[in-house]
Design brief:
By secondary structure, the chain is an alpha+beta fold. Helix content is 32%, strand content 24%. The chain has ten helices and 14 strands. Strands 3-4-2-1-14-13 form a six-stranded mixed beta sheet. Strand 1 (115-121), helix 6 (129-137) and strand 2 (143-147) form a beta-alpha-beta unit. Helix 6 runs parallel beside helix 7. The longest helix is centred in the first third of the chain and has 18 residues, at 84-101. The protein is elongated and about 75 Å long.
Length: 328
């Protein structure tokens, strides 16, 4: 009896035996390991997640990067339980997350832009439109697109930006300001009221077609889910207009009320490249400005090369401005 107790104590002290509960590191934490499986499957198979009632697939993809928060939680739980099985299992969602978003964590910004673009949903309830205009003018952008203008605030921005931008047009609730001449400015019918425009910017390196749009808002409502029908219809109308564009160089900016991961917006994004994904540093989350959790404000291009992308400091809006440097 005494020899057995001494042998057991030695095994416990050296870590070569099992825990007092009789379960080794490969047998502990099985529930934690099991939790890693659905997390891995949801991230890896998010495109197959059903998007029927409530548009749950789109909702999932809007906040898809945040599923990565589950990885450190699993790893910490595995460490507390001293479970090798849980630790190995937690690496599965980590690998999938890195394959999906790891490239966004690399700083891909470079110099050499010919055109700097800024897009900003200025919020129609912005308490300081003059201050917002001043901040945006100091960005050095040659093209500035504003969304969510109102009959009250549009004249304020026109006056405040007049010295920096000699060319501009306001169409409904969106506006475009430019240091270069604008021609062929017209509204784009994406909704019953005007929330998009198209213009040709005459840059020193040739014409660029510019689209500024504010897609319909979305909501998450009990019993209804993710209400995206009107936004998706507006996205389809915008996609049709962009596909019909004859100029080879195209820039599409605005508040899309959705991310480039959202399957419902692929009708727009599939023919364009995201400046943030191609030339940014990080996710570039733009909303809400107090604690950004999603990039719903986009700068998308065709026929030009993004060399930098990111967000600008907060203004009086609930969105952050987004910016990109483009090589023409």
């Amino acid at each position: 009896m005494t020899a057995q107790v001494v042998r057991t104590a030695r095994e416990t002290d050296t870590g070569s035996g099992t825990s007092p509960g009789g379960r080794g590191p490969w047998r502990r934490g099985l529930l934690i390991a099991a939790a890693a499986v659905p997390l891995t499957l949801v991230m890896a198979g998010h495109t197959w997640f059903p998007d029927g009632f409530g548009n749950l697939g789109s909702l999932l993809e809007t906040f898809l990067p945040w599923l990565g928060v589950g990885v450190p939680v699993l790893l910490a739980s595995a460490a507390v339980r001293r479970s090798a099985t849980a630790g190995v299992a937690a690496l599965l969602p980590a690998v999938v997350w890195c394959s999906l978003f790891g490239g966004l964590l690399i700083d891909k910004r470079s110099a050499g832009q010919d055109l700097t673009v800024v897009s900003h949903n200025v919020n129609d309830e912005n308490p300081d439109p003059v201050g917002t205009a001043r901040e945006l003018a100091s960005s050095g952008a040659e093209l500035l697109a504003l969304e969510e203008l109102s009959t009250r605030t549009a004249p304020v921005y026109e006056r405040a930006l007049a010295d920096t931008y000699p060319y501009h047009s306001v169409q409904g609730t969106v506006g475009l300001w430019s240091t270069y001449p604008l021609r062929d400015v017209e509204p784009v019918a994406i909704m019953p009221w005007t929330r998009a425009l198209r213009a040709t910017a005459e840059t020193p390196k040739g014409p660029v077609a510019v689209y500024a749009a504010h897609l319909a808002s979305v909501r998450v409502l009990p019993g209804v889910g993710f209400t995206t029908a009107r936004r998706n219809e507006a996205a389809a109308q915008l996609a049709d207009a962009v596909r019909a564009e004859r100029l080879p160089r195209v820039v599409v900016v605005g508040d899309f009320n959705g991310t480039t991961d959202d399957r419902a917006l692929r009708q727009v994004t599939s023919g364009l490249r995201s400046a943030q994904e191609e030339a940014g540093d990080g996710f570039g989350f733009s909303w809400p400005s107090s604690f950004p959790v999603a990039r719903i404000d986009q700068i998308l291009v065709r026929g030009v090369t993004p060399v930098s992308s990111g967000t600008l400091p907060s203004t009086g809006s609930d969105h952050l401005p987004v910016t990109a440097g483009l090589r023409l």
